[in-house]
Design goal:
Length: 571
Amino acid sequence: MATSTTAARKAAYLFLSLCCGALLAFVGWRAYEIYGPSKISVGGIPYGLPAGSTVIRGDTPDMKAELAEMPVQIQTELRRAQELFRNGAFPSAYSVFDGVVSLYPDLTPAIWGTVNTLFEMDSLTDVQNDRLTLLTAKLQGKYPNTGLSAYLESRNFFKAGNQSAAFELARSASEKAPALFETRLWYGELLMKESRNIQAAGELKTVVSLSNGESPKAYELLAELYHQAGQLDSCSAVVEYALSQYPVDAHLLLLQGYISEYGGHFDAAEKIYQRILAFRPEFTAASEALSTLGEKSPPGSGSGVALSPQDKAQVAYDILEPMVARYPENLQLKEALGRAYLKGRSFDQARVLFQEIQRVNPEYPDIKLRIQEASVTKPAPVSGNDGLAANLNRAVDSLRESSKPSSTHDFSTMLGHYLVRYGATPKEFFKKYSMSNFRPVANNVWQESFYEAPYKHTYTVVFDSLNHFRQVHVVVFDSSSNSNHLGMAPEVFTRLLKQNSRISGIGNSSGETDCGDGLILDAAVWETQDNFELMAREVGKPAEVRMIRFDKSTMPQGLRLCDYAAYLHKY
């Protein structure tokens, strides 16, 4: 009986101890929640941390509270500056941020925006360097020995070329101010430079969550990290989502172009690179990607040697060419070899095969489409039946090209697409385009000509009476003799129509319109809020295409197609 009583007493003590322990743990947890380090709970942002994850604030300053005390106009200006920053327009963002700092010299969000913008700019003037030094010192004085201060010191060390010191300071800043997403972003970028990719991915996902998905650079770096690791599916998924939020992000578009190229979709990749250069002509990575189109290999995963698309196409050539030679009547084999030539960008060989298939079987499925694909990038070869005139024309063109300065136009600036805003002065225009390529033809009118055999291009730039850029007139003449169109749209018009569609998008066709006095125009129109373009051919002049580009605000209202004939033939 005594033994039973003792056992019961021990069980009661044990139960009471467990209850007290649980109570103390709960009290301790609540005390930590109330008096311990404050935390931030993040939402479920795609490619960020899991929803509900928490991040300790550390010594992160509360800039939102400081900003909330400002007038609405100042808050609006800072939001505009942040949007410019996100879009990569750093000079414009700096101008707005620094303007607010001039009005409110102690406003932390404005100073913070200014210094981060200056850190992102490629090159700084002496005035901007002095401004960066002054504002950095001001922030470090306001927040001494904090994560923010360590972050600024890290950026300065990196700017001075000391990457190891920058890395250690960035790590310290991330630990002291873990909720300051700019600090985590910078640390993630340096981790990538150190090839510590797993840790970098964690930092970048944290940035995505802390910024509520409003840091395009976090997506850029995360996608680049996956790309470098050869995880192309993950890279593609991040790029696709991020471009839905930031559709003109040049770095994301560049990765999209790479992925298209790896899949053998060279035309799609080329359009992406051209699109980047249309709004970022100084983006050298896109220029390099365009010049090496079809030569890139997907990054390897660490084993073996990756083949470029052209190398892969060569493997197909080696297999298919002997089979086609052995079975020349097999059209399916010829089509397969033609498709391999397309992937290897051997367009002439592909076109010959597809034309052979069409001669044997004009109803062969999609054969016209295959021929068109093989003709998009390179002009069709001129047949030997064109005679001496065509050969002489091409010889003259070659002499002209050798005696004239080379064209300064790449694909995106052809057909008069000068990358200068409407309203620009001649000084601004000729800062971008060398005046030596132009000659004055009238008051405020300049003209340049160049040859890209067999086409002669003549572009006329028109400034208004106030010396503001308003119009471009284009004339392209095919000097070869194979431009007779036999009742159809001639090759020169069709090719230039495709070329302009790749620059400006798909236009609206007018069809052939009788304008009287024997003038019949066939045209296409592109129209946006600011720009109006019209490309036309005159039936009966198959070798000539004319085009006009207008500042839409200066155009008379209510013009019909035939009303533009005077503009088309003005120069």
